[in-house]
Amino acid sequence: MSRFSSWRHALSLTTPVMLGYVPLGIAFGVLCVQMGHAWWLAPLMSVAIYSGASQFLLLSLLAAGASLTEIGVAIFLLSARHLFYGLSLVSRFRGSGARKPYLVYALTDETYSLLSSRAETRDPAVAFRVSLLNQGWWLLGSLLGALAGSLLSFDSTGMEFALTALFIVLTLELMATVKRMAPFAIGLACGLGALLLLPQRHMLLAAIGAACLVLLLDYRRRAPRPVEQRP
């Protein structure tokens, strides 16, 4: 496969992410400018931070006058789910060479979904192209939004729904690939349980931890037991 064909294939893999990242990035860029920040701060954050939820949270914390400690703790807790993503891909990233630091850095929710559901992304070169294109879509959206926000004045209410729509599309694609409903039912049950029983600031981390624990127990239950060898 030629280099051009390889990039074209990676482009086709990241198209669903592009359809969500660009509109959501535009919403972030517009919001950043409307909150009084310079237009270049939005693309800079998309390069240096590259975490949609954390970037939106950072804008809110800056507006509230939060301290650096408060900002650091809040963003760490919000991004703690990436620890689970990284642990599940440690063995795959081991042979990626110089690409490894960027693959670890660029592991967003949507990129993880692609890397864990598509067999061809086991190739470090393909995984690198997918990760780079996904960040490129987010950077493009935030840049366009920042420029639009600095030149135009309009109401951006509702644009953040693009992230929810993107998660729905990726979940459906993952369900079609895995062809097993139990992991999704476990995730749904843990998410609803955390939503009903816990305060909002603890909900996400608790839901992820509970889902991982139940999935590990389910995996242990289904794993074939070693055959005992007679002397």
Automatic annotation (TrEMBL):
Belongs to the AzlC family. It is a multi-pass membrane protein. Pfam families: AzlC. Keywords: Cell membrane, Membrane, Transmembrane, Transmembrane helix, Transport. The chain crosses the membrane at residues 20-44, 56-78, 136-154, 161-178, 184-217. PANTHER family: INNER MEMBRANE PROTEIN YGAZ (PTHR34979). This is AzlC family protein. It comes from the Bacteria. It is found in: Cell membrane.
